[in-house]
Amino acid sequence: MPDSNIKSPESSASNGAAQIAAERPIIVKGACVHNLKNIDVTIPRNRLTVVTGVSGSGKSSLAFDTIYAEGQRRYVESLSSYARQFLERMDKPDVDFMQGISPAMAIQQKTTSSNPRSTVGTSTEIYDYVRLLFARIGKTISPVSGKQVQKDTAETVIHELFEEQEEKTRFYVLFPIDLREGRKLGEELAVLKEKGLVRLLNIETEDIIDLSTDELNLKKINPDTHRVLVDRLAVKKDDETRSRIADSVETAFREGHGRCTIKLRGGEELRYSERFERDGMEFLEPTPQMFSFNNPFGACDTCEGFGRVSGIDEDLVIPDHDKTIRGGAVAPFDSPKFNKYLRDFIRVAAREQLPIDVPYKDLDKETRRILWNGKDGYAGIHGFFEDVKSQFYKVHMRVLYSRYRGYSRCPDCEGYRVRKDALYVKVGDLHIGEVSEMTIGHARDFFDDLKLSDFEQEVAGQILYEIRKRLKYLVEVGLDYLTLDRLTNTLSGGESQRISLANSLGSSLIGSLYVLDEPTIGLHPRDNDRLINILKSLRDIGNTVLVVEHDPEMIKAADNVIDIGPFAGRYGGEVVFSGSYDGLLNSKSLTGKYLSGRKEIEVPKKRRKGSGKSITVTGASEHNLKSIDVEFPLGAMVCVTGVSGSGKSTLVHDTLYATIQKELGTWKEKVGRNRGVKGLKYVESVEMVDQSPIGRSTRSNPATYTKAFDGIRDLFAGTRQSKIMGYSPGHFSFNVPGGRCEACQGEGIQKIEMQFMADIELVCEECGGTRFRKEILQIKYRGKNIHDVLEMSVSDAIDFFTDEPSIINKLQPLEDVGLGYLRLGQSATTLSGGEAQRVKLAKFLSKTNTDHTLYFFDEPTTGLHFEDISKLLGSFNELVNQGHSVIIIEHNLDIIKSADWIIDIGPEGGFGGGQVVATGTPEEIAGVAESHTGRFLKDVL
């Protein structure tokens, strides 16, 4: 008999081939995408590889536009033509040969969705599983009695009677008189008589009316107080009595159209129903659709599932949440004219024992509900505004109402977005809205501690496993501070990237290629270790991980490092180094020099004291801020630091920047809650330099954005040839008819839509991609036509226009912030977030602005190499030296150590944050034991 353990030669060969394929590296030969100079790279499979290099050197061109694009394209090509039409179609990268490519997934730092219905819970699928959990094991609780709603049977009625009533308790089995199908009372009683049901009971007096003998007076019979009597019984725990009660209850259910009541002799009436109802209310039986705010069936009718309605803004009605009700928290009631409403509330509060001498922010839900909706003689804040609306014929009432207009929580669903019926269903004593309000950290504890019966475990065990698994990964990527109902369009690029990372971990795919774009963005150095461990776990289950990154910790953790350079743009695009981290330290590359300490960003010799003036925010309490007072010195470089989710953006963006903009009359959005901002008179203008694109059109470029193109067009229009031909500056623009090529309308390319393949972009036949008419291209300035100038790099253009100050002044700042490699005509849509931010910075540097401007920067080091950060710091210092002020939200230690003043927010993210941990110079912060930032600063100072 053959040995079963001996493998056949064929199976051994196939396993061996699979093993070799699994270990074969990814080989790229002759990559020429964008600025890559025909490079060859080898990436080991099932390893963590970091691609680094100066900004604009070609890292993303290699990782995303070459390797990921080819992996994605090959996978999509393998699908049916039907499936392909629904997927993003990728161009074939310009590369000679690629081998060993796996199906690829890109995790990029773009905000996942602009959809106002998309939340953290829906985008991670946690909310979908929670909906299923509530539909399957949720208990519907009556808001009237607080008891569980369920369909009753004779068995449940008997069980309740025997459990809750004493032996020999006497009772009646009844059912209500149901006047159906337009019948009159006399007709209904006649039908009952025919069935042999001839006794009625008045449940108030317990008098019995006999329909067979008594002279009927229909006026004395009221369906609300009279019931049809089926039987009179007493509680006896023997089989005969039990059987008789069961028969009587079943008769009552049958004849009462599913309803039966038990009237205890001299006591209360207990109502039962075979329908899903209780306490006179009919409820919907839970289904997954009922809990979906994206489904017309489940969404609240009033707000259509958005949770907010146009009406009265709570933050305008109660501007200071630290005030008490008696202390004037409700702004409209704090006037002699409307003080009556406050007195009415105080009377109700005394009767109901409501706390009115505690800050509004500490009031419980019930007190807030009464304050807003009213009770007894008090109309409520909503009632007050209804009174105001009823007097709209008076101008001052319309003015009063408009002062408090805005968006408020929906009054019907209380901002939970789902229909009322869904909020009656509870799991672990919470409804789905309360679960959605939890942070990911709290939700994880809630679901970990959830106790289920054996039956519930059988039904929901798998659902619970999926919820717990996803929450675990979100905690691991450091997002425990986000709430499940947080809108995804309010997340930062780094947060949405980490959500995608957690989703990828949850899918547990193996044999794939993951390409990540700077996953450490928005992460405090404290959380880097967690992220690195996650990427290693992705690698360890059998994936190849390729990361574009500048963070020293991430580079150190890599199995393999590829350094692209040596410089940016056309001076880059070469492989400077490929190998281990130790090898990189000893290499001649810029990255190696900075990592080994041979080159460094030096700590400033002295810290600027500032102008002596400052802006102070008092009582900032938006989101998780704990009513903090923060002073921002002016005339200095101020850095706001803290772990992710600690409240930095809420303080700087939503509170300080929004307040200044509102003061200048250019802000229409909501302003973060605060008690006041002092020192605004010292600021004449304000600029927010974030990473949004400088233009969404392919026509926008650095030359048009910095207005350098205006000067260039004037020069061409001023040439002798132009004057002879009658050309104006407009003829040298590719945006308007006149000089542009009309075949491609100045785009330089023509797009051809291909049904099942990627759209093809072909160089325009008419103009050859130059964007202009042939006659216009014959006009030359110093031997170059307008197309040649747009193809120049910023550095070359500065040399070319050396004696034209109007152009040089616009271009020199681009060189100063490290963007000398950009082409003047390079499309804005091809710029990275970091490049777009530096183009904006250059535009501000080019202005000769004498007004005192306050500049805000949101993580300006995104996508920047150490060498670029060094140049960026020079630009910041120049702004401060010109007399302006700079406030930066940042996690990068090189920027933090170079700041004049630091405001550290924390100590943790979410509920654990929102406090000022420390303020001072970097040296002072490094000495604060409670500061996570200080701990890391100590090492770099």
From TrEMBL:
One of its GO terms (biological process) is nucleotide-excision repair. InterPro entries: ABC_transporter-like_ATP-bd, ABC_transporter-like_CS, ATP_grasp_subdomain_1, P-loop_NTPase, UvrA, UvrA_DNA-bd, UvrA_inter. One of its GO terms (cellular component) is excinuclease repair complex. PROSITE patterns: ABC_TRANSPORTER_1, ABC_TRANSPORTER_2. Keywords: ATP-binding, Cytoplasm, DNA damage, DNA excision, DNA repair, DNA-binding, Excision nuclease, Metal-binding, Nucleotide-binding, Repeat, Zinc, Zinc-finger. It comes from the Bacteria. SUPFAM superfamilies: P-loop containing nucleoside triphosphate hydrolases. Belongs to the ABC transporter superfamily. UvrA family. This is UvrABC system protein A. The lineage of its organism: Bacteria, Pseudomonadati, Balneolota, Balneolia, Balneolales.
